[in-house]
Amino acid sequence: MSSFTQNLCRSVQAPGVAKRYRDAGLGLAFILLNQIILIPIQIGLDYCSINIPASILIMILLSAIMIISNRIYGGTTQFYAKHLRGPSDFLGRHMSFGFVASFIMLNKDHVSNAIDIPRIAGAFIITSLVGCIGSAVIASGCSKLESRLRGQRRVKVAEDLESFNKSWPSPSTAWPAPSAEKSPMVIAELSRVSESLAQNQSLLSMESVTQAPTGQFFDYIVRTGPTWICIVLTITVGIPVYFATKYETPFEALCFILFWVLAVQFQRSLKRSCRLLQHPRLASTLVILANPVLITWGLGTAYLWIKMACTGHTIASVVVAFRRHNNLPEGIIAVAGGGGLASHIGAGDLAGPVLDAGIVCLGFKMFEYRSELWESFVTVVTTCALLAVANVFLNVIVAHALGLKAEDAIAFAARSVTIALGAPAVQNLGGSTTLMSAMVIFSGIIFQMAGDWLFYVLRINDRDDCRARGSTKSQDSSSSSSIDKEKEKEKSAAPLLADEEKEARRNGGSDNSVLVSAGVTVGINAAAMGTAHLIERNSRATAYSALSMTVFGAMTVALTAIPGVSEAIITLASR
Fold first, then answer.
1. What is the C-alpha to C-alpha distance for residues 202 and 209, in angstroms, rounded to an integer?
2. 77-114 burial, b for 16+ CB within 10 Å, e for fewer?
């Protein structure tokens, strides 16, 4: 037993693996801390009938606190880079899990009239194309104009003290992945070859060196650790709690987390498959189809239909038991009012905190890229304002012109607004929140599946692999001396990068405007799921997407709250 523990600890203590597990642990702890702060604020907002999610307010407040703190104490940036960047990236990558519950609800709330399906699809395609093209064109034009008015195209890298503190996370997802370091087996083999050559021995006389089966076993356990942790918790916690109390929420929550982990690891295994790399097109297609949200939704839907068959209940009642309220604070209020825990808190209600924590962590990203956001703030606000007005009216007109009923046409007023902001606004207008949620989710999934291909076709260079490797090395370093060496390398690279910036300006490059327009387009049209994908692909457009998602959603909610505008929307949808 002691040997088993020692080997397992040795595998976990590898620099890259240890950091990923530490980031995951801190990220999960942040979810709990965020809910402790968020729930009282959300209850207060609901009591005052303010239809703004507390997660958005906390995100903005967090970003402001970080900026003010950095003004007072200059070490805030270094503290964030060392302790907070990893957990925030972990939550950013996995916040799409929060949309699975909303996607599952489509099993209960669906379009009753089959004739409306092609109409809805047509309106969705038209409004999506117009929205994407319009936001990209407007953002690009505003960015170029703003740059000229400010008298510069881009901030010089040599003068930007934050350039080397940006987040360049590793391409893998936040779960532990195989280390990129050389295998001890290879090092041992090379040392034996050197020893044989030094002693003038024949290489044929060397015994083959193979990695011990125990070493391979423990490496496999560590790589797939999240899967085993979920299985163990399901067996030791979920099942006993269900049989003891007949409360199935812990068991179902752990099952859906397991589905998500399996989906993420399956997609990652496809990305690094050596056989698939020999067929790039097939590999790209399989990776696109293996979207974690779709796979988790499929496994979760199958689970609910199996549960329906075993219990004899209808699918509607099974889905209602899975998610009983729009958010967790509503369920807590119902429980505090005298309701039972089992009748008000389902497994789907526990998915919301993951999304809330991911949205709050976008405040860290806006702090991280505060200089870039300030340089493009007018562009983001102007584009969001124009698109918010256009979406609220034109989308409803298009949907109504295609023959949709008023309830469904109103849902198009918030077609691409993140669910946390759009659902209350559409509900107040009497629109279909189910259709609105479905469109938001589908918009995010489409970008997650086709985003990499679109960025490649449009030649949008939003990643910097060199800095990514440099950041990964500095993050995996456990000693302060190695961190100091990385900083020295970064400082020595600054003049070279500054020369590249000058050369780009002399050549009339407009990479910055393209980057800004890409981020704004994703934030407006793909919302939180699109922003999560930008985090996963190490994109410099993440901050623009997060800010535009927030500003666009807030402006849409503000417009729909104005009595004259809300009446006009209802009139356009029903005349």
1. 16
2. beebbeebbbbbbbbbbbbbbbbbbbbbbbbbeebeee
- Tokens 């009339």 belong to which residue? 508
What pLDDT is attached to residue 241?
A: 93
pLDDT digits (tens, 9 = 90+) for 283-293: 888 988 899 99
Distance in angstroms (rounded) separating the CA atoms of residues 184 and 178:
13
- State the Cα–Cα distance between residues 544 and 48, nearest whole angstrom: 31
Between CA 304 and CA 103 the distance in angstroms is: 13
Residue 32 in this model has a pLDDT that exceeds 70: yes
Per the CB < 8 A criterion, the answer to whether 412 and 403 are in contact is: no
Rounded distance between C-alpha atoms, residue 40 and residue 221, angstroms: 40
Q: What is the mean pLDDT of residues 373-388?
A: 92
The tokens of 39 are what?
Answer: 């729930």
DSSP-assigned letters across all residues of 421-451? HHHHHHHHHT--HHHHHHHHHHHHHHHHHHH
The whole-number pLDDT of residue 479 equals: 38
pLDDT of residue 179: 41
pLDDT in tens, 80-102: 999 999 999 999 989 999 889 88
* Cα 460 from Cα 440, distance rounded (Å): 24
* 3-class secondary-structure state, position 95: helix
**Secondary structure of residue 58 in the 3-state scheme:** helix
325, containing H or E segment:
none
Q: Which two tokens stand for residue 557?
A: 């909610």
* Residue 58 predicted with pLDDT over 50: yes
Cβ 145 vs Cβ 517: under 8 Å: no
Alpha carbon 17 to chain centroid, angstroms: 21
Report residue 494 as tokens.
């600054």
Q: What is the pLDDT of residue 217?
A: 64
The pLDDT tens digits of the residues spanning 435-491 come to: 888 899 999 999 999 988 889 888 888 875 544 444 444 444 443 444 444 444 444
Q: Which of 301-308's residues contact partners 24+ apart within 8 Å by CB, and which partners? A: 301/104, 301/107, 303/252, 303/255, 303/259, 304/104, 304/107
C-alpha triplet 503, 505, 506: angle, nearest 5°? 65
Mind spelling out the 3-state secondary structure of 125-184? HHHHHHHHHHHHHHHHHHHHHHHHHHCCCCCCCCCCCCHHHCCCCCCCCCCCCCCCCCCH
Q: CB-based contacts of 550: which residues, under 8 Å, 6+ apart?
A: 56, 59, 60, 362, 523
Q: What pLDDT score was predicted for residue 184? A: 45
